[in-house]
Amino acid sequence: MDTQHLVASSQPTAYAAVSVILLLILCHAVIVWKNSPPSLSLPPGPKQVPFVGNALQLPMGYQERTFLSWGRTFGAVVHAKLFQTSVIIVNSVQVAKDLMDKKSENFSDRPRFALLGEVLGLGDTLPLIPYGDKFRRYRRWFHDAFLAQGVLVNYRPLMRRELSAMLKSLITHPNAYETHFFRYNAAIVLEIAYGHRVTSDNDSYVDLSERAMHAAACTGSAGSMLVDVFPILKHYPTWMPGSGFKIQLLKTRELLQSMLDAQYNVVKNTLRSGGVKNASFASNLLEAHYCDGSLSQQDDTDIRGASGTLYAASTESMSSVMRTFILAMVLHHEVFKKAQEELDRVVGPDRLPDWEDRDNLPYLVSVMKEVYRWNVPVPLAVPHVVGRDDVYQNFKIPAKSLVIGNIWGMSKDESLYPDPDSFKPERFLEMAPGSLADPKNMVFGFGRR
Questions:
Q1: What pLDDT score was predicted for residue 341?
Q2: pLDDT digits over 304-342, tens only?
Q3: Which of 59, 308, 346, 397 could form a disulfide with 390 if both were Cys (CB 3.0 to 4.6 A apart)?
Q4: Given a cut of 70, is residue 7 above it in pLDDT?
Q5: What is a single cellular component term in the Gene Ontology annotation (predicted)?
Q6: Cβ neighbours of residue 317 under 8 Å, at least 6 residues apart?
């Protein structure tokens, strides 16, 4: 009886103790909740469809226009989803620099490029390499070859020689200006990368490169095509219905690999047989490894990829800029007349302009800046990948998100370029040094490249 009474009398005490503990836990939780920072939301963006996100809202071509439309609705930073992948779309130069330049340690990686990297075999070129040791190795090679003190001056005689050849071709066959532009750029890069001198308008390597680069350009932007979203499509059998895309991609791959191999193998074989006539980017790297006594398979792959980067990344884009210049001058004769008057006044009729004349040709320099802005050579920057969760302007940027710089959209930013659809070189005449509006801040991409 006493035991039962003791147990019965202790139960209220136990219940009270448990209640006090639970109350303390609840109070602690409330205090922590009140003092904790509010959970961050993702940047605003278009309404998503279950499972597919915003994938069905993107057109197959001219995606930069859709991105700009979203930017005008939701702001400079837009969040979208391609199936299960978060995508941060940047339509502002300042935001792009804040994320991919100032936070480059976290925003420098690359996604998997199933189309360009794997199907077309360009995975060893610098724009597509993930951030890591291989990337840093390439950067060191390029810095030594092009950014070291006084190096670029050494290429000026080559550029003057090829400029003369191009001008002669333009006088003889003016209607073939597109071919002359590509030959000019290809000849410069071929000699720098591989030591190959172009001596005729029918150079087989230039012809191969022109066909390969045109085929590659027709495949679409990096990271934006269906094969990138569904990498399994790279295994789609060529005998099945609907395989036309795969057959065309394989033909493009063959052209690109021939372009990357042709001159590189010439350099390797010439070095093995006694030395090269013209030193080049590829020959210098190969010779350094041969002198060290070894050239591993990885060394060989990396030197081939780095040399190919020079060629693949510059010939078509620079030719595009030159074609835009012709279009702008045809459409805007008053601009052409002003530039010609300045050139005649500063340079005169007896010689060609040179690098030393640049500071005395402010209007012509402004024309070239407007050419870059008015029709950017690459509308979308190569996508970056976020390494870990980040925060920008109180928005959460999730790890593994794609970050796409809409360069075309940035070129239409009315806060930097009033009346952006008009060709107005004058907008750059009064531009302060280091201005955010300078097209070089966007047309060459962002981050550690």
A1: 97
A2: 999 999 887 778 889 999 999 999 999 999 999 999 999
A3: 397
A4: no
A5: membrane
A6: 377, 378
Q: Answer yes or no: are the C-beta atoms of 183 and 203 closer than 8 Å.
A: yes
Mean pLDDT over each residue of the chain, to the nearest integer = 88
Let me know whether 186 and 230 are in one domain: yes
Q: Same domain, yes or no, for 340 and 306?
A: no
Contact (CB, 8 A) for 68 and 408: yes
Pure H helices in 126-225? 133-142, 156-172, 177-194, 204-217
> Are 262 and 348 found together in one domain?
no
Cα(280)–Cα(253) distance, integer angstroms: 25
Tokens representing residue 234 in the block: 């790279």
Q: What is the pLDDT of residue 21?
A: 64
Does the residue 65 lie in any domain?
yes
Same domain, 101 and 174: no
> What tokens were used for 239?
């005998």
> In whole angstroms, what is the distance from residue 224 CA to residue 216 CA?
14
Nearest to 290 by CA among 275, 305, 308: 275
Domain count, the chain: 3
Q: Would you say residue 4 has pLDDT above 60?
A: no
For residue 259, give every residue at least 6 positions away whose Cβ sits within 8 Å of its Cβ, in sequence order, or none.
208, 209, 212, 213, 308, 311, 312
Q: What is the pLDDT of residues 247-272, one digit of tens each?
A: 888 999 999 999 999 999 999 999 88
CA–CA dist 245, 218 (Å, integer) = 11
